[in-house]
Amino acid sequence: MTNENSKNDNTYLTLTDTDRKILASYKAMLPNLGEYLGEGYEIILHSLENLQHSVIENVNGHYSGRGNGSPITDYALSMLARLEHDKNHSSFCYMNRSKTGIPLRSSTIPILGEKNRIIGLICINFYTNISLSQLIAKFLPDTSPLKPEIMEVHENFAENADELIENVLNETKQRILNDASISSQNKNKKIVEELYARGIFKIKDSVIKVAGHLGISKNTVYMHIRNANSEKRS
Predict the structure, then answer these.
(1) C-alpha dihedral, 176 to 177 to 178 to 184, nearest 10°
(2) Residue 203's CB: how many other CB atoms inside 10 A?
(3) pTM of the entire structure?
(4) What angle do CA 187, 194, 212 make, to 5 degrees?
(5) 101-104 long-range contacts, Cβ below 8 Å, gap at least 24?
(6) N- to C-terminal Cα distance for the chain?
(7) What are the backbone dihedrals phi and psi of residue 119, each rounded to the nearest 5 degrees, phi first?
(8) Are 73 and 44 in contact, with CB atoms under 8 Å apart?
């Protein structure tokens, strides 16, 4: 990739407004990704606008001594050259070592901007010297009074939309039908309201499918959805 701004020797790539918005969205996502992965992971976000100060966001950058404004690495540059010649812009996974010799499991992932150009890189390093207790701790509820306990949820991993609708409907239906505090004439209403709250009706043809499973008309389902929407706004 050639320099697109000869007036500024520090500029490697001239970014568009859209490119900047794309990088900003990754920048906003990085802290949450770091929180999910845990302290064994270093995540570095590079912008290719200025290779001398390419790091625009980092998680656990203290591992390698890098912060925002640090330069790109030589290996990232070599990966970039390979990525630019790879029409699929595939990510690379490889073994690496830190400055102190710690084995790393690393990945370089390209970020695409306008016109399918590579405008940035996400580099992830897993530090294999992290203790097993630290690694496992991320998967256990945090009972510290300073942090709220992570709620365990049940998530449906369906193969298709029909299966997702049916799974959620059956779970909701069983729970509400077994709830003696809900009168029999209100059970379908409550089922539809909960499905609405869970976002199921955002899926195409879900109203027709739910109506068929419950043995009611689609107009009745729409009526319950309107009522639920009115209650939500009030």
Answers:
(1) 110
(2) 15
(3) 0.69
(4) 65
(5) 102/127, 102/128, 102/129, 103/128, 103/129, 104/128
(6) 55
(7) -110, -10
(8) no
Closest CA to 46 of 37, 38, 64: 64
pLDDT in tens, 77-92: 888 878 777 777 778 8
Token output for 140: 């256990």
Determine the residue type at 208: I
CA distance 172 to 48: 49
What contacts 151, CB < 8 A, 6 or more positions away? none
* E-only strand ranges, 50-174: 55-59, 92-97, 103-112, 118-127
**Tens-digit pLDDT profile for residues 217-232:** 999 999 999 998 887 6
Q: Check residue 115 and give left, alpha or beta (phi > 0: left; psi -120 to 50: alpha).
A: left
Q: Are 205 and 194 in contact (CB under 8 A)?
A: no
Who's near 210: CB < 8 A, 6+ residues apart?
165, 169, 192, 195, 200, 201, 221
